[in-house]
Automatic annotation (TrEMBL):
InterPro entries: NTF2-like_dom_sf, SnoaL-like. SUPFAM superfamilies: NTF2-like (SSF54427). Residues 8-134 form the SnoaL-like domain. Signal peptide: none annotated. This is 3-dehydroquinate dehydratase. It holds the Pfam family SnoaL_3.
Amino acid sequence: MKEDIEQIEALNEAFYHAFESGDLDKMSEVWIEDTDDRVAMCVHPGWAMLAGRSSVLRSWALFMANTTYIQFVLSDVRTMLSGDVAVVTCTEDVLVPAGTDELGFAAGVVVATNTFIRTESGWRLWLHHGSPVMQDEDEDEGEGGHEQ
């Protein structure tokens, strides 16, 4: 069980690293292959559900092609394992450039659920669901906009 959790957490980190580095090949390695009884699924913040490996990977390719820089700082990471399914929940503190005419960065907060499944090829990401956390305009920027 400990070895499985270590593998799942390493794969979760690989998922975020693939996005940060814009590496679609690495992102493809993380996701499951579709079968008759399961398909890859993804919900990006503010998007409808995407179903099917090709649709999911196409969305990541689109993000990567249009993202000059992105960095994730994960907190509140929790890993739960039940048989051949594992769920990792976390808070994503996301840093992106502020805009084309501005210097600096903009930050946002997303709560994510990543569901992994054991396959013949090892653990793979089955479902990613990211939900934005609305920040109060009166909060200080340094507070992060979420409770710990």
